[in-house]
Amino acid sequence: MTVTNLEKTGKSNLISPNLGRPSILKIDHKLKNKKLQTQLLYITNNYDLETFAKSIQNQISLVPLYDYKLSYKLIFVKKPKGLFSKWREKRAKKKRKRFLQDIFDYGKDIDLNLERLKILKSRLHRGKPIFPKIISVENSSIIPIQNINNTDHLNPQEFIIKNQVFGELNKFYKVTIEFTLNKKVLKFLKERNFVMFDIYSANSQINYHSLVISKQKWEDFTFVHATDLHLAERNDRIYGIVKKWAQSSIK
């Protein structure tokens, strides 16, 4: 986007969902519902709705995060059997080699030993982006916190404007998007209970881990809330210090 176009469309930021407050979408265990909708909250200095809508058109993408170990499993770790098995195994080896080159950047000579993969247990990689369709763009205004009935909705907060969190940006828009899950995401969900997405938006903005699609029913779960823990090494020594101090006082 050129400077001239940026001046016309204004500046904008995707403020929700985000890493601290992700959007969690439900999906059935049989994965029949492949088409999903969610909402995004933007803040901008563009007061013209149509101009803002054009500025984010084709600028939003959802990038899934996969477990590398599962991805490797999904591209034929087991040797194929039956008709054309040799040809299928040869094709599978090429896929595995490309996968490891892309993910681990090992170069051309790659050891396909699974023991090498086990070393990187927690490593994730990003898959091909999904490009959603914008269903609607609407004005969104600040609602006093005492009047908010449903916390699931994206509601602009007054402190953002009062504290000028985003500088001169003070206009809110709520954007509804629709997207269809691709085969790779569905394969991943067959093996896992959820998949996370980064949301890429205009001006190269990335909201990491801000969208989650989950098979969890949320009927039975545990919530732990721990506050004011004062975790510090000095606190472990207080008792010993006070004990010695009390003994010396008695003497």
Question: What is this structure's SSE topology?
Answer:
Blueprint: H1 3-9, E1 12-16, E2 23-26, E3 35-44, H2 49-56, E4 61-67, H3 68-74, H4 85-104, H5 114-118, E5 124-126, E6 133-140, H6 158-162, E7 171-180, H7 183-191, E8 194-201, E9 205-214, H8 233-250
Task: Write up this protein.
- By secondary structure, the protein is of the alpha+beta class.
- The protein has one domain (1-60, 131-251).
- It has helices at 3-9, 49-56, 68-74, 85-104, 114-118, 158-162, 183-191, 233-250, and strands at 12-16, 23-26, 35-44, 61-67, 124-126, 133-140, 171-180, 194-201, 205-214.
- The protein has a 5-stranded mixed β-sheet. Strands 1-3-7-6 form a 4-stranded antiparallel β-sheet, covered by helices on one side.
- A hairpin with a 3-residue loop joins strand 8 (194-201) and strand 9 (205-214).
- The radius of gyration is 25 Å and the shape is extended.
- Mean pLDDT is 79; it is low at 1-8 and 106-110.
